[in-house]
Amino acid sequence: MDVLEDKLKGLSLAQRSHQNGSIYLLHGALQPGGFLAVSCSDRTIRLQDRTTLDLLGEYRGHAGPLCGLTFAHTSSDLLYSGSTDGTVRAWDVRCPGTEAVQMFRGDPSHSFCSLDLNCSDSLLCAGTEQVDREDSFLVFWDCRKAGRGLLGVFSESHSDDITQVRFHPQDRDRLASGSTDGLVNVFDLSQGGEEEALLLTCNSDSSAGVVCWSGPDSTQLLCLSHDEGLHLWDVDQVDSDQPLTIFSCSDARRLTPLADKGSVDYLVGGMWLEEAQTLLVVGGSSSGDLHLMGCDSGGLSLLSSLEGGHTSTVRCFLWDAAGGSLITGGEDAQLLLWKPGGKQLFDGKSQPMKIDSALKVKSRPHRKHKYQREKK
User: Fold this and answer.
1) Is 6 left (phi over 0), alpha (psi -120 to 50) or beta?
2) β pairing state of 325-330 and 334-340
3) Within a domain: residue 84?
4) Total domain count, the chain
C-alpha cells in the first residue's frame, strides 16, 4: 500500500483533451497495449492515443445513449459498445470511422443499460432497463455468431434496471449483475438454467450503480450505490458459515475526511489493482478535485488527491498499469491524463458545461433481505 500511495502522490496533470461541444464523457476502455476508447453523451465513440490523448477517429451508429464499452481480450482489435437503442455493436479499431462489423439484438422491447464480455471472448451479456414496469432481463449472445448468436435470457433475478454486468476476470462462466432493485447477483453460467445458475444474492439496501470483482483471486465483489453507499462482499464464503460482508456503509462520503477538513461528495467507481494488490476507489468533490482511496475491511483510506483538473463531475477513470498513469473523463467535456512527472498543466480550467446531469439514474431502495444463498 505504501508503494502505491507514493506512486499515486507522484501523479500530476500531463495531458488535457477538450472535446468539442457540451458533451459528457461517460465510459472509457483501454485496449491492451493500444488505444483508448471513450463513449460520449452525443452517442459517439472516440478513439484516442492513450499517451497524447490525440483523437484518432470516431464511430457513429447508435441511435440512443451509450451504456458501456469493452475491448475484446483475445482479439483486442474489436471494441464492443451497448446502447439504449437495443443493440450491442462491435467496431474494428484498425478502421476508425467505419460501420460496426457486428451487431447484436435482443427483443424489440429491450433497451440496454449495461454490457460486458467474458474473458474468453465467447459470451456477451447485456442488462436491460425495466420492461412493462415489472421485468428486466440479462440477455446472452455467442460472440462468434453475430446476427444469429442470441442464446437466451434470464428474466427472474432482477425486477428493475440492470445497471451493471461484470464477468469474472479469469472464470468465463462467472457473472455478477447489479440493479436499481438493490440486488447484486452472482451466477455460474455453466450450470444451465437461471435457477440453477444463481449462486448468490446480496442486498445493497439501495440502487446498485457500480459492481466490480476484487481481491487477490477475484473472490470479492465491490458494490457502489447511486446514493454513495459502499459494500464489499467475500463471494468465496457462499458455502461456508462465515459472513459474506467484509465491509458495508450506507454513505461512504463520511468515511474519508480530507486534509483540509473537506469531504468526498460522490464516488466515481472502483478497480482492483493487481500489481499493488489493492482495491482502488475513486471519489470526487463538487469543485472537480479527485480523491484516490484504498478500500479493505477497515473501510476507505485516502491515498492521494488530484487538483487542478476537472471542473465538474467525473464520470469515468482508467488505470494504465503499464504506464503507471490515470485517465479521467467527465461532465466538463475534458479527458485528462495524470502521470508521474507530468507537466502540471495549470493553464486555466475550462468552464463547467452543466450543473445538473441530463443522465440522472433513479434510485429505488430494496430491503427485503440482507442476503440469500442458493446451494446446488
Assistant:
1) alpha
2) antiparallel
3) yes
4) 1
Helix (H) or strand (E) holding 361: none
Report pLDDT for 330. 94
pLDDT by residue (tens digit) across 304-346?
999 999 999 999 999 999 889 999 999 999 999 999 976 655 5
Does residue 20 contact residue 335 with C-beta atoms inside 8 Å? no
Whether 105 is covered by a domain: the verdict is yes
Instruction: Assign residue 21 a region (left: φ > 0; alpha: ψ between -120 and 50; beta: otherwise).
Output: left
Amino acid (1-letter code) at residue 63? A
- Cα–Cα distance for residue pair 71/76, rounded to 1 Å: 6
3-class DSSP string for 290-343: EEEEEEECCEEEEEEEECCCCCCCEEEEEEECCCCEEEEEECCCEEEEEEECCC
Say which CATH number the domain at 321 has: 2.130.10.10
Question: What are the two backbone dihedrals, phi and then psi, of residue 136, each rounded to the nearest 5 degrees?
Answer: -145, 155
Q: What residue ranges in 49-173 does DSSP mark as E strands?
A: 55-59, 66-71, 78-83, 87-92, 102-105, 112-117, 123-128, 138-142, 150-154, 162-167
The answer to whether 90 and 101 have CB atoms below 8 angstroms apart is: yes
171 domain-assigned:
yes
Give the range of the structural domain holding residue 125, as residue numbers without chain letter: 20-251+309-370
Residues 315/268, Cβ–Cβ less than 8 Å = yes
Phi-psi region of 121 (alpha: psi -120 to 50; beta: other; left: phi over 0): left
Segment 2-36, tens digit of pLDDT: 789 999 999 999 999 987 768 999 999 999 888 99
pLDDT, tens only, 139-192: 999 988 766 679 999 999 999 999 999 999 999 999 999 999 999 999 999 998
